[in-house]
Specification:
Structural class: alpha/beta
Number of helices: 15
Shape: globular
Strand content: 15-25%
Helix content: 25-40%
Number of strands: 18
Strand order of the largest sheet: 6-5-7-1-8-13-4-14
CATH topology: Alkaline Phosphatase, subunit A
């Protein structure tokens, strides 16, 4: 029998939503009042690093292990104690165990969209998509709404950055489309491996007809200092359109420009994060928020980069179907790389005194099936274990943001199938982020038909994470 590889995020419901909104959401009147208080209460120099794990990380192997469950549920790994009594994580995450007092685990976020496209759109936009498949947004991604709202405050020369692999930087790959917002709210994207010696910030696009006046494009991209001299000498910057103006501003802004330069970081710091794409992206994210950028999305998708061998029984993203990978063998390589990078970011945020103003959220679009599946791998041709998509329960971690951490928020039933305590939705996560950033998440935005649409139609900040 032929088993095809899951197309995953690269190609293109459980709980009733009404119940989820009733428990974790707000009515519109309450929402309007709550968001006004949120905007008033939050400081104005706050930032969020949003770490995205495409494909759906396995909650049963990471943060919601069930060692007492039957063998078809619990898997191969064992939990280990952390520095927080009662909190356990996977044995492959020993660095997490040492800094558990600096993050909280959320185990009860859930939704109803099991396709990668639907899951991405549901999580990234805070709304049920009109189509359960495909990655083109019906509604603006939350990052774009953050960018739009913060642009009014002129808080930074650069409000929204996305860092991802080369070839994975299309606006629809992770459902980050702007929908009915201006395209200027899209993220400034850094594609590629920042640990590579030849890495450049080179996605600067010039308006048509300006390339000759600003000399040739290649020379403009040779280096940031050279770019700045060229612009200063031409006086043509006023002719750039809104998108190019933003790009020019950020590349010629001292603080942001310096944030891209990782050569200024001590070698010990680079080693702590990991000398690969994941580590250097996380490090650059810390530098960007420190320099004033309020929202940075870091994609940690393919760990087999920068000299890390790609095993035959591994997979490029977190989509751990049996046809894609041997779940446990893939995890034995993937988890330690993830463990180092994410805990380095958390430790660094605290060590540099950024934990009050910087919120770190680490999540994917859904969890994995509690029951293991066994099928022949597309590459290995032998039967191997994996898990399918599971939006009914997922786990994530949150750090910083001025909250008291070392918490476990919510719980799932003994088989990890669904929330048994404190059910939450992706909108509650976004409401927490918006509140931290001081964004009015009930603010009406006209859609394609001119109808006023609030940034979030429901959801409230997670009270356990309010500083």
């Amino acid at each position: 029998m032929q088993f095809d590889r899951c197309p995953g995020p690269v190609s293109r419901r459980s709980f009733l939503q009404a119940g989820a909104v009733g428990v974790g959401g707000l009515g519109l009147n309450h929402l309007m009042a709550a968001r006004a208080r949120a905007a008033a209460d939050a400081p104005k120099d706050t930032a969020c690093i949003f770490v995205w794990l495409p494909g759906g990380p396995p909650h049963m192997e990471m943060y919601d292990m069930k060692p007492q469950a039957t063998s078809d549920v619990r898997g191969e790994f064992s939990p280990i104690r952390t520095n927080v009594p009662g909190m356990e994580v996977c044995e492959l995450l020993p660095m997490h165990a040492k800094v558990a007092d600096k993050f909280s685990i959320i185990r009860s976020v859930h939704h109803t969209f099991a396709d990668h496209g639907g899951g991405h759109k549901r999580f990234m936009t805070g709304r049920d998509p009109k189509e359960p498949t495909g990655f083109v947004n019906d509604y603006p991604a939350c990052g774009s709404m953050i960018s739009m709202m913060l642009e009014r405050e002129k808080r930074s020369d650069l409000n929204y950055v996305l860092m991802t692999d080369q070839g994975r930087h299309g606006i629809d790959v992770y459902s980050l489309g702007t929908a009915y917002l201006s395209s200027s709210t899209a993220p400034f994207t850094l594609a590629g491996d920042p640990s590579d010696a030849g890495f450049e910030v080179k996605n600067l696009s010039l308006a048509a007809g300006l390339e000759n006046r600003l000399l040739d494009r290649k020379r403009l991209l040779d280096g940031l200092d050279h770019l700045r001299r060229e612009i200063d000498g031409t006086g043509s910057i006023g002719a750039l359109d809104e998108l190019n103006q933003t790009a020019m501003n950020l590349l010629t802004s001292g603080a942001i420009r310096q944030a891209f330069d990782l050569s200024k970081e001590p070698e010990q710091t680079k080693e702590r994060y990991g000398r690969h794409a994941w580590g250097y992206r996380a490090l650059m994210a810390r530098r960007l928020v420190e320099a004033g950028c309020p929202f940075v999305t870091v994609v940690l998708e393919n760990p087999f980069v920068s000299g890390v061998p790609f095993p035959k029984d591994g997979t490029y993203n977190w989509d751990s179907h049996a046809v894609n990978c041997h779940l446990f063998r893939d995890a034995r390589i993937r988890f330690p790389i993830y463990d180092r990078t994410v805990t380095a970011l958390i430790e660094d945020i605290y060590a540099r005194g950024l934990d009050e103003r910087v919120l770190v959220v680490v999540t994917g679009e859904f969890g994995r099936t509690p029951r293991l599946e066994y099928r022949p791998g597309t590459q290995t041709k032998v039967v191997q274990p994996g898990r399918d998509h599971w939006p009914q329960a997922m786990s994530m971690i949150v750090s910083g943001g001025g909250a008291d951490h070392g918490q476990i928020i919510g719980a799932t039933n003994p088989r990890g199938e669904e929330p048994s305590e404190r059910p939450l939705s992706p909108n509650d996560v976004w409401a927490t982020i918006f509140r931290h950033l001081g964004v009015d998440y009930g603010h009406p935005i006209p859609d394609h038909n001119g109808r006023p649409m609030p940034i979030l139609s429901d959801g409230e900040p997670i009270r356990e994470l309010l500083g």
